[in-house]
């Protein structure tokens, strides 16, 4: 929850929505107009598949009415995250179709009636995040997606059906604008747990957290009350001072067990709804805040080639899919490459991903070969070429709305084979 709150503060510390920087005031949609390029360094492992429409919301005072347009035949997903990082609702192609509609996001304590035709979505916390994604088929498709984004609206219930001129956001020039994970790492135990206690006052724990709440109460952390580490017993102070490094060590130890590796690909684990698996919740907040639930998308990550060797642009690789083993996704799939810094790699083609929406060249038997290498594989193979750097790299195979064989583990990406 602390990572989410610091992310919110950074993302909303502007007067007006700024899609290029993915920032906007509270309760205002921010529409990202283009894919990131190789110069983008804000969020690790970005995608080149969708344009985003995001909003940080606060419904503590009154509901926020969201309007989504008719999306035609365009795949989209609108996940709702509470401040604990759980996905508590998802709108979009997979869940409620493409027809759009009006939805009132209401807080956990709100009571009242909504206008006819407005569906309620109850947020477990007053504050939360919506990270909408719209399938985008390359730069030539931007203009069409922009027209869809323009149909997204967010207005307070009290302004529903009336002209609404939202106020400018408040800018705090003194706010720490470093990446949120860096800020959390720099917080001392006293500041961290004081902020955690403050957030608990407006954002209640989940009903299943009873056992943990009893443990927290023993050290003075009680929902609805402040917390001062200096006033705690010495034994509690020492324990909480060790909490952050101990938790970080446990996350690193747990990470391998959270992933299944097949054919040199890490297949990931359940994300989006964590229940009482607090370590998994913390790990995803640290390494992939805003990840989609696996029913909506899976992101197998390359670990090594077929010989168990790390991937490097000093070699050439082919990823071969048999005709009956193409990535099974109901929406679409793509393969995205990243350098060792976890960002896109600059290349002459400005090609950072390749997938089923590209003009791929299939083999006569319907199979598909993708070539991953630093130098061009030649004109005949160029449509299937994903440029690599001269040195180390890794990749994600993204499957949007993965089919049952992916979800139940019957399908995994084939191994990357090194070419002679």
From TrEMBL:
SUPFAM superfamilies listed in its UniProt record: VPA0735-like
Species: Variovorax boronicumulans
Protein name listed in UniProt: DUF1254 domain-containing protein
InterPro entries listed in its UniProt record: DUF1214, DUF1214_C_sf, DUF1254, DUF1254_sf
Pfam families noted in UniProt: DUF1214, DUF1254
Domain DUF1254 span(s) in chain numbering: 26-155
Residue ranges of every copy of the DUF1214 domain listed in the record: 296-403
């Amino acid at each position: 929850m602390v990572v989410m709150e610091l992310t919110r503060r950074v993302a909303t510390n502007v007067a007006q929505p700024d899609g290029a920087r993915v920032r906007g005031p509270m309760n205002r949609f921010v529409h990202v107009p283009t894919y990131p390029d190789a110069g983008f360094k804000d969020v690790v492992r970005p995608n080149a598949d969708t344009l985003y429409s995001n909003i940080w919301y606060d419904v503590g005072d009154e509901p926020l009415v969201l309007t989504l347009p008719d999306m035609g035949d365009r795949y989209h997903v609108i996940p709702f995250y509470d401040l604990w990082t759980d996905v508590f609702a998802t709108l979009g192609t997979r869940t409620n179709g493409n027809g759009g509609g009006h939805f009132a996001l209401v807080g956990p304590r709100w009571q009242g009636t909504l206008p006819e035709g407005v569906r309620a979505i109850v947020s477990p916390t007053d504050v939360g995040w919506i990270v909408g994604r719209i399938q985008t088929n390359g730069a030539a498709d931007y203009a069409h997606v922009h027209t869809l984004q323009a149909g997204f609206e967010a207005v307070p219930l009290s302004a529903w059906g009336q002209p609404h001129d939202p106020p400018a956001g408040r800018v705090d020039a003194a706010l720490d604008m470093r990446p949120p994970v860096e800020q959390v790492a720099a917080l001392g135990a006293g500041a961290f747990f004081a902020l955690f206690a403050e957030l608990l006052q407006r954002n209640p724990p989940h009903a299943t957290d009873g056992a943990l709440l009893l443990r927290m109460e023993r050290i003075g952390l009680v929902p609805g009350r402040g917390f001062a580490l200096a006033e705690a017993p010495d034994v509690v102070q020492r324990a909480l001072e060790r909490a952050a490094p101990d938790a970080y060590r446990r996350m690193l130890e747990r990470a391998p067990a959270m992933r299944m590796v097949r054919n040199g690909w890490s297949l990931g684990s359940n994300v989006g709804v964590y229940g009482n698996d607090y370590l998994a919740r913390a790990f995803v907040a640290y390494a992939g805040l805003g990840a989609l639930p696996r029913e909506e998308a899976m992101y197998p990550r390359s670990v090594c080639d077929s010989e168990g060797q790390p991937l490097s642009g000093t070699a050439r690789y082919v990823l071969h899919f048999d005709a009956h083993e193409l990535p099974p996704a109901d929406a679409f799939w793509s393969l995205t490459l990243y350098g060792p810094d976890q960002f896109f790699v600059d290349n002459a083609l400005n090609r950072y991903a390749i997938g089923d929406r590209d003009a791929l060249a299939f083999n006569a038997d319907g199979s598909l070969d993708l070539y991953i290498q630093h130098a061009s594989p030649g004109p005949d193979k160029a449509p299937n070429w994903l440029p690599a750097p001269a040195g180390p790299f890794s990749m994600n195979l993204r499957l949007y709305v993965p089919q049952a064989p992916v979800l139940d583990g019957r399908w995994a990406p084939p191994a990357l084979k090194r070419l002679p």
